[in-house]
Amino acid sequence: MSTLDTGPVPVSAPGLRWGILGPGGIARKFAAEIPAHTASSVVAVGSRDAGRARAFADEFEIPTAYGGYADLVADAGVEAVYIASPHSAHLEHALLALEAGKHVLVEKSITRNAAEARSLFAAAAERGLFAMEAMWTRFLPHMIAVHEVLDAGEIGEVVSVVAEHGQDMRALGDDHRMKNPDLAGGAMLDLTVYPVSFAHDILGAPEQVTAVGTLTSTGVDETEAITLRTGSGAVALLHATMRSATANAATINGTDGRIEIAGTFYAPTTVTVRPRHGEARSFTPEVSAGFAYQAAEVARRVHAGETFSPRHDPEGTIAVMATMDEARRQLGVVLPGE
């Protein structure tokens, strides 16, 4: 298993000068990992609160801080913008950056729904700019290895995928973005996107989506179980919740064996291949900065003059959003402004 291809190391990619739009919690990981583990740099950060932007810039040694997003995207030194604002503003902020001629990497979920995702990618294509959802899992070494195992037919034909993602968020107040419908809160766009995107990555887009679950008092989805069925007859069993810290593991079951991905499946972790005949073997990649892989992919594609990554292209991203749209419809969740 150690001989499997796990993809290029991040530092091998050419550099990009990044701007960060929205200095929240997830942006901290981006700001720390990209300059430390890639040839790229973070040269500016923007927030509606100038003091917050300055404090973030000082902490991560970022040269420039802006008290507004328009100033950030207008910075001639910024080549690409990492958008880490709430889901409710992703489309607005991505369009702002694209209209300023910047490539964009937009935190997952890329938008609130498939229609918004189509608008975002159309705007990028019109301008010849790169745009991608920041689904970092797609570019991690263990997922590259998983696809090599599948492509080699080591577990036969895939029959089913099982994946879950649960975080205990019961202590959060109703005004927190995770429970606020105005900010596109709920488990779907923050938590469920991981198992749904994983299932799409392995099986492709489904023909049938079935969802059941529960809602919070604020009207966003709290817990859901989703089943998918593809045209080939393969199925996915997916679960996400804001009420429990689950194992966050995943399994790919085939006619001749299975692949087990330890928790947390969407982050760097151990993969075990269990063939029906023969001994099991495991692989644990040496990864110290998971976000660096997606940033390196953006840099490679931008320098090659390409507008998307084949590992996570616009069509596939929109298909994931469409699956979640249908699941939310069945759960009875409609976000303000949709």
CATH topology of the largest domain: Dihydrodipicolinate Reductase, domain 2
| Helical fraction | 25-40%
N-C termini distance = 46 Å
Structural class: alpha/beta
- The overall pLDDT average reads 96
Point out poorly predicted stretches: none
CATH superfamily of the largest domain: Dihydrodipicolinate Reductase, domain 2
How do the strands line up in the largest sheet? 8-9-10-7-11-12-13-14
Order of helices and strands: EHEHEHEHEHEHEHEEEEEEEHH
Q: What share of the residues does DSSP label as strand, in percent? A: 15-25%
Radius of gyration: 20 Å
| CATH architectural category of the largest domain | 2-Layer Sandwich
Enumerate how many helices there are, as a single number: 9
InterPro entries: Gfo/Idh/MocA-like_OxRdtase_N, Gfo/Idh/MocA_domain, GFO_IDH_MocA-like_dom, NAD(P)-bd_dom_sf
Protein name: Gfo/Idh/MocA family oxidoreductase
Family: Belongs to the Gfo/Idh/MocA family.
Keywords: NAD, Oxidoreductase
Question: What's a quick, concise take on this entry?
Answer:
The protein contains 9 helices and 14 strands. The chain has 338 residues and is of the alpha/beta class. The strands form 2 sheets. An 8-stranded mixed sheet has the order 8-9-10-7-11-12-13-14, covered by helices on one side. Strands 3-2-1-4-5-6 form a 6-stranded parallel sheet, sandwiched between helices.
What do you see in this structure?
The chain has 338 residues and is an alpha/beta fold. It has 2 domains: 10-136, NAD(P)-binding Rossmann-like Domain (Rossmann fold, 3-Layer(aba) Sandwich), CATH 3.40.50.720; 138-331, 2-Layer Sandwich (Dihydrodipicolinate Reductase, domain 2). It has 9 helices and 14 strands. It has helices at 25-37, 50-60, 69-74, 90-99, 114-127, 141-151, 187-203, 291-303, 314-331, and strands spanning 17-21, 41-46, 64-66, 80-83, 103-107, 131-134, 158-166, 208-215, 221-229, 235-241, 250-254, 257-261, 271-275, 281-283. The strands form 2 sheets. The chain has an 8-stranded mixed sheet, with helices on one face. The protein has a 6-stranded parallel sheet with strand order 3-2-1-4-5-6, sandwiched between helices. Helix 4 packs parallel to helix 5 (114-127) and helix 5 packs antiparallel against helix 9 (314-331). The longest helix has 18 residues, at 314-331. The N and C termini lie far apart (46 Å). The mean pLDDT is 96. This is Gfo/Idh/MocA family oxidoreductase. Keywords: NAD, Oxidoreductase. Residues 16-131 form the Gfo/Idh/MocA-like oxidoreductase N-terminal domain.
